[in-house]
Design brief:
The chain is of the alpha/beta class. It has nine helices and 13 strands. Helix 2 packs across helix 9. About 5% of the residues have low confidence.
């Protein structure tokens, strides 16, 4: 028996990396009884007679997990959002950020296709870059075949398991191909009628890139907040966390409460008004969410 890492799941088989070698495994039937399924990214105990006939016996405790995409033990989320085609959407970016913050995953933001913008729009993207950098995030403005931005992304991949996320058509697979051309991940052109790309990635797989693992996934097909609670939402905005101890009321939701430190910072301009408005939008969405039974 040995401990390895699942780097691909396909057609009922799990491909486990151990000591530089890949073992094709099936999961034991007791996982089905327990209603637990191995995920890409899992550290697993397995036994194999040879590289084609192995069995997963146990799953090590997970640090985090996603259902869609199905992946576990993620350290970092590389969130790719395009400046054009599809147009930059700050609300959608903040939704992605909340989803990964809720899992205690470090975000890395890449704004792609900046070279396709007018000077005025480039200036607007730089303003967004400043807003998110003030929050504490790393933001990389990327142009097509921009070697400097590719090097910047690579420098954040070592010794980490990174999931790549973003809308279809923003250039996720193209970015990975630029980092490591050996991957040759399929990409499709943007559909003009829809203004978005087709999903080209069919399964979750971890690629060894720049000293770490990167997951090219079928995307975050569900961007709903699911079980996220209102008190957890406030923890997903780092700029709120820094000042919320100064709110008059413990458990302040930074909405209608008096003497709220977050609202004071918004009024002073030290917290982005747009980010705060997005927070209120998400807060209302969670509060109005229908209960699940």
């Amino acid at each position: 028996m040995a401990i390895g890492k699942i780097i691909k799941a396909l057609s009922g088989f799990y491909y486990v990396l151990y000591d530089g070698e890949l073992y094709q495994c099936r999961a034991r039937g007791n996982f089905r009884k327990k209603k637990v399924a191995p995920l890409v990214g899992d550290l697993v105990e397995f036994k194999a007679e040879n590289k084609e006939e192995g069995y997963i016996l146990a799953i090590e405790k997970r640090r985090n997990e996603f259902i869609r995409p199905p992946i576990a033990n993620v350290d970092q989320a590389l969130i790719v959002t395009s400046a054009k085609e599809p147009d930059f959407n700050a609300l959608l970016l903040d939704r992605f950020l909340v989803l990964v913050e809720a899992k205690r995953i470090e975000p890395l933001i890449v704004i792609s296709k900046v070279d396709q913008l007018s000077e005025q729009r480039v200036a607007a993207m730089k303003e967004y870059q400043e807003i998110y950098e003030e929050v504490g995030y790393t933001v990389i403005l990327s142009s097509t075949d921009d070697l400097q931005s590719i090097d910047q992304v690579q420098s954040h991949l070592s010794d980490r398991t990174t999931v790549i996320a973003g809308q279809s058509g923003v250039g996720k697979s193209s970015l990975l191909n630029s980092i490591d051309p050996r991957l040759a991940i399929d990409t499709d052109e943007i559909s003009e009628s829809l203004g978005r790309g087709k999903h080209t990635t069919r399964h979750v797989e971890l690629y060894e890139i720049s000293g770490g693992f990167v997951a090219d996934t079928p995307g975050f097909s569900s961007l709903e907040f699911g079980e996220l609670q209102v008190d957890e939402l406030t923890e997903c905005f780092p700029e709120f966390v820094r000042v919320q101890d100064d709110c008059k009321f413990r458990g302040c939701l930074h909405h209608k409460e008096p003497k709220c430190a977050v609202k004071a910072e918004v009024e002073e301009g030290t917290i982005s008004k747009q980010r705060y408005e997005h927070y209120l939008h998400f807060l209302e969405e969670i509060q109005n969410r229908k209960p699940r039974y």
